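Encoded backbone
================
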Amino acid sequence: MPAMTITLDLYSDYVCPWCYFMTRRIERLHKEYDIATVWHPFPLHPDTPEEGRSLEEIYSRYPYPTRDMLEHLRRNARALNLPYGERTMTYNSRLAQELGCWAEAQGRGEAFHEEAFRTYFVELQNLARTPVLLGIVRQAGLDPDGAEEVLATRAYAPEVDRHWKNAREQGVKAVPTIVVGDNMLIGARQYRALADFIEQQGAQELNV
């Protein structure tokens, strides 16, 4: 019997640095294992206003200084050879997630997700702004006119609501989270931990 492709349900948010870091590790998993990934948007900071919130405010709940947290994130980005800007703000990603669902329906989800992460973490742009979102759409090879209609009508708002509801029902409380069947892996784990997890779920290595 041929091996069966294992599907990873990946819960993520475009403004989550650990989700950004996971993109590189997930990319490697796809090169080495017979897996498929299904993207699910998650509300990391859904109450963020359109103008954004400072990272100082976001990280104030942690027991260590914001500058230490930011340096920790920079070190992780360097270790993965990912470009990473000097962030000071986070932004509301709801509209970006709606466009992400639309892009998935157009068969360009992966390109859109990659560009959305780059636009925020490298270019430091506000993902709640329509011109920024349309720039992501163009870079991802999608139709800006179609995207404008999606934004104007909020056509994919129910789809994002469905994903958020599913996350709550499955007990997903943080991102990134990978779900395979009844099993869950939370957090931006190192590559070996990810590989071990999917192997435990039956993922087979590719013959490369």
